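Bug #77: duplicate submission created two jobs. Keeping one. Sequence:
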Amino acid sequence: MKRFQNEEVIVKIKKKTEISFWEYQILGLLSFFTKKSNDYLFITDKRVLVIINEETITDIAYQDFNKIIFNPLNDTLKVYTINNKEIKISLKKLRLSYEEIQLLKNHIKTND
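Kept job's structure:
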């Protein structure tokens, strides 16, 4: 991906975008066939990027990969920015599966 020219992707999660209940009510079955977008979580050696429904939600450069902490109980990442500011990133909109949570636990420290 061109977006990560000088970065090593450590974790990549790709999911089909799910439609909400209200979108389903308004658009009906047609929305199942027209909705082809994806949601992503990328953790590179330099930043965390969350893309939901093809819109960048989070793009944070971080200080140290070893300081990232994943909380599997509430699906959040704790990251320290370049300026040493603590930021919590919610991953709830990604609707992580059990396998995806295990993938994150295998790559990132947890606090459980």
